[in-house]
C-alpha cells in the first residue's frame, strides 16, 4: 500500500520537452516510474527517446489521458505558464497533479486552487514549489532522489524539499511507504492534514513523520487534527528555531509575526497533541526509531 502513488500510476509530464522536464523524466524513468507521455502543444506527435524508452508527446492533457489512461501529471513548466498548465490538468480531471515549479505568483496559485474547488476537487494538487511524491520501489514523481531510501513503513509529509531528502536518508534503513513534499508557499494544494489523514488510513504506514517550518499556522492546525483523528504515532520537526522575528526565511510562507508562526509555538502545539518533536532532523529520526523499536 501507499498513498496517492503506486506502481500502477500512469504519469504524464507537462513540460517534458524542456531542459528541466527532460532531465527529471529521465531520472523518474530510472526509478521505475511508468511515464506514459509528455504534453507540449508545439511538439505533439513527436516522441522522445530516453535511453531506449520512447515517450510520446501529446498536444493536450486531455488527449494524453485518452490515449494512455494517465492518472498523474507532473508539471515542469515555467512559472508564467504554470497556472494555465494546472487549469488544463483540472479541466481534464486528472486525479493527481504535482506542481514542481517554484516562483509562481501567489495570486496564480490561489486562482487554480479555487478553480479546482469549483470543478468539484476531482484533481488533487500537490505543490506548487515542492519536490513531489515518492512511493519507494514503485513510483517517483518530481525531483526527490530515488536512491536515498527504500520501501518501508514510515509515512513522511514535509514543507521543505531538502529536509524531505535528509529525513529519508536518516531513516533509510527502515524505509518509507510514501514521502510527500507539499511545498512551503503561503497557498498550497495538499496540506499536512490531507497527508496525515491518508497515512492514518493506510494499513502499511506504522508511523508518520511530519516536517514543518516557521510561518503561518499550518502546523498548529495539523496538531489539532492529530489530537482528534490520528491514532498512529507522529514525530515532528519544525525548521527555523533560530530564525529572527519578522524576517522572511527561504520559502515565501516562512515569515514570523509576533509569537504566531514561531518554531517554538508550533513545537508546543504539536507536543500538546502528543507528537514527539525533535530539535534537529537527526534527533527527530532518533525519536522515530525509538517508537518503532517499541
Automatic annotation (TrEMBL):
Tagged with keyword Nucleotide-binding: yes
Q: Give the E.C. number(s).
A: 6.2.1.5
| Cellular component, GO annotation | cytosol; succinate-CoA ligase complex (ADP-forming)
The Gene Ontology biological process annotation of the record reads: tricarboxylic acid cycle
- What does the record give as the active site? 251 (tele-phosphohistidine intermediate)
Q: Which InterPro entries match?
A: Cit_synth/succinyl-CoA_lig_AS, Citrt_syn/SCS-alpha_CS, CoA-bd, CoA_lig_alpha, NAD(P)-bd_dom_sf, SUCC_ACL_C, Succinyl-CoA_synth-like
* GO MF terms, alphabetically ordered: nucleotide binding; succinate-CoA ligase (ADP-forming) activity; succinate-CoA ligase (GDP-forming) activity
Pfam families from the entry? CoA_binding (PF02629), Ligase_CoA (PF00549)
Residues that, per the record, bind CoA: 17-20, 43, 100-102
Q: Which family does it belong to?
A: Belongs to the succinate/malate CoA ligase alpha subunit family.
Function statement: Succinyl-CoA synthetase functions in the citric acid cycle (TCA), coupling the hydrolysis of succinyl-CoA to the synthesis of either ATP or GTP and thus represents the only step of substrate-level phosphorylation in the TCA. The alpha subunit of the enzyme binds the substrates coenzyme A and phosphate, while succinate binding and nucleotide specificity is provided by the beta subunit.
Q: Any idea what this protein is called?
A: Succinate--CoA ligase [ADP-forming] subunit alpha
Name the gene for this chain.
sucD
